[in-house]
């Protein structure tokens, strides 16, 4: 099989792949979805039939060994990411892995070591990097639309059952043994990665967390600060135990001339200065990972840089880990 075409196999064809990612593999040039896997054979077969996927498996090893697959998309809960990523890399497959890339930083580093040893290619699915809205925000900051940046304020407050969380049959996201650390570990990777994407890696950080609801084992209140180059101060607040009327998803980048405000899970950007206020609406693609998958395919085929490396993911995961589990 020629690597002029990226032929994908999905491990974990659950709800997150139905619209967000799965169909996009067949929409990108030089890319096709060849096989899917899910432990429930009936559900794997059903997914394959509905999405016109030629092959389905109920055993991940069989998919990994399929000679017609040269790239693996890992869309399982984070508990299984490390083992599948390493198994794929050792077989010479390209890897695209969902966030958070692993349960913890130690697991991420083990994956990174295998990437280095095998010379393999792995991309982390921080797909907001591919969306025009976030790239426009990055350009606004770079071009000085609001002057030199002073601070960043992020607020993510949701009730006990957040509507921004993808549906799943079992709520594994609130089991740290499977997810790494509750809803914070599900949503914060998108947010902290974009902050890093725009401002670079932080110089220092500190955080605190609490279990307020006592409804599950994971922390549901997290707060953290980071310091970036040029003395830019970041303050973040996440709470998944608040009244629905206080729901909030907002980030405000404050500069010397004004501010840029936007939601991470919405599609409108507000740019305000003393001279004017602009509201910039964006339309996200039907399959929200489509642009990122295009960038991933280009990287795998040698036509571009890695759109999100394992080392990028280690940095944001280290911040998350220290916010939740570090000493304040």
Task: Give a quick precis of the structure.
This protein has 328 residues and is of the alpha/beta class. 30% of the residues lie in helices and 25% in strands.
Can you characterise this structure?
This protein is an alpha/beta fold and 328 residues long. It is built from 9 helices and 14 strands. The strands form 2 sheets. The chain has an 8-stranded mixed β-sheet, with helices on one face. Strand 9 and strand 10 form a beta hairpin. Helix 4 packs antiparallel against helix 9, helix 5 crosses helix 7 and helix 7 packs across helix 9. It is globular and about 60 Å long. It starts with 5 loop residues before the first strand and ends with a helix. The model has no long low-confidence stretch (mean pLDDT 95).
């Amino acid at each position: 099989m020629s690597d002029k075409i990226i032929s994908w196999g999905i491990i974990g064809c659950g709800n997150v792949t139905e619209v967000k990612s799965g169909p996009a593999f067949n929409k990108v040039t030089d890319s096709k979805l060849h096989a899917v896997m899910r432990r429930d054979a009936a559900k794997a077969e059903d997914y394959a039939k509905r999405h016109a996927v030629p092959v389905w498996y109920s055993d991940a090893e069989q998919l990994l060994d399929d000679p017609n697959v040269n790239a693996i998309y890992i869309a399982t809960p984070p508990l299984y990411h490390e083992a599948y990523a390493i198994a794929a890399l050792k077989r010479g497959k390209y890897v695209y892995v969902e966030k958070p890339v692993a349960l913890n930083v130690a697991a991420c580093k083990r994956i990174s070591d295998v990437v280095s040893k095998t010379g393999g290619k792995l991309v982390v699915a921080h797909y907001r990097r591919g969306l025009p809205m976030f790239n426009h925000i990055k350009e606004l900051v770079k071009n000085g639309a609001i002057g030199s940046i002073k601070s960043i304020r992020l607020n993510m407050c949701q009730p006990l059952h957040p509507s921004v969380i993808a549906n799943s049959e079992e709520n594994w996201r609130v089991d740290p043994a499977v997810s790494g650390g509750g809803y914070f570990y599900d949503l914060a990777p998108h947010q902290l990665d974009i902050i890093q994407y725009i401002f670079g890696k932080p110089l220092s950080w500190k955080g605190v967390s609490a279990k307020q609801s006592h409804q599950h084992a994971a922390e549901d209140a997290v707060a953290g600060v980071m310091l970036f180059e040029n003395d830019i101060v970041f303050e973040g607040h996440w709470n998944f135990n608040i009244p629905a009327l206080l729901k909030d998803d907002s980030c405000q980048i404050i500069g010397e001339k004004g501010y840029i405000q936007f939601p991470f899970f919405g599609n409108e950007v507000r740019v305000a200065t003393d001279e004017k206020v602009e509201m910039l609406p964006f339309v996200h693609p039907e399959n929200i990972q489509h642009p990122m998958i295009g960038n991933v395919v280009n990287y795998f085929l040698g036509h571009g840089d890695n759109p999100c490396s394992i080392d990028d993911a280690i940095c944001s995961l280290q911040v998350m880990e220290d916010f939740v589990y570090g000493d304040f």
